[in-house]
Write a structure and sequence with these properties.
Order of helices and strands: EEHHHHHH
Number of helices: 6
Shape: elongated
Radius of gyration: 32 Å
Length: about 170
């Protein structure tokens, strides 16, 4: 027996084991939280918190355990959602402020990269694009019609040319 929980009525005092309440209501509390939050792990965490609150400060009347657990679970879920909503708003605001300056620099860099690639000959441009798109040396060799063993050298040369042109551009 984990603990006895006591409620007082005008007729006297009754007892109900904590483990009985847990066994009878845990699944209901968990489902309620899962439906409200759509996250099984979070629902489990908050259900544990509900029963911890029940253990620490049980309700006062017989038969009110279920209603009390429902209200506590609902309030914990709403508090969590409000906190999440506020956190998301703060994050969005932060990223929007940060994004504006980052996007400008990213767009500027993309323009330079495209200008440099346009200056390069077709073969070097194709090698770099394929390499940075995730193609294997074998696939690049097949497209170019060269031996696979020479692709590493060709990639290194194309990178070197790109760097030279990029320095001129910037």
């Amino acid at each position: 027996m984990l603990c006895l929980y006591v409620w007082k009525e005008s007729k006297g005092v009754g007892f109900l084991e904590y483990s009985e309440v847990y066994a009878n209501y845990y699944a209901k509390v968990y489902r309620q939280l899962f439906y409200m939050l759509n996250d099984p792990f979070l629902a489990e965490d908050l259900a544990q918190e509900v029963f911890l609150k029940f253990y620490q400060n049980p309700p006062g009347k017989e038969g009110s355990a279920g209603a009390w657990l429902f209200r506590v679970a609902k309030n914990l879920a709403y508090n969590y959602l409000r906190g999440e909503d506020n956190r998301k708003k703060r994050e969005i605001k932060f990223w929007l402020l940060r994004r504006d300056s980052e996007i400008f620099h990213l767009l500027e860099e993309q323009i330079y990269v495209r200008q440099v690639l346009a200056k390069m000959d077709e073969r070097d441009r194709m090698i770099l694009i394929m390499k940075h798109s995730g193609y294997s040396y074998e696939e690049i060799a097949e497209v170019l019609g060269v031996k696979k063993t020479s692709i590493g050298t060709l990639v290194a040369r194309a990178h070197r040319k790109f760097k030279e042109y990029f320095k001129e551009e910037v």
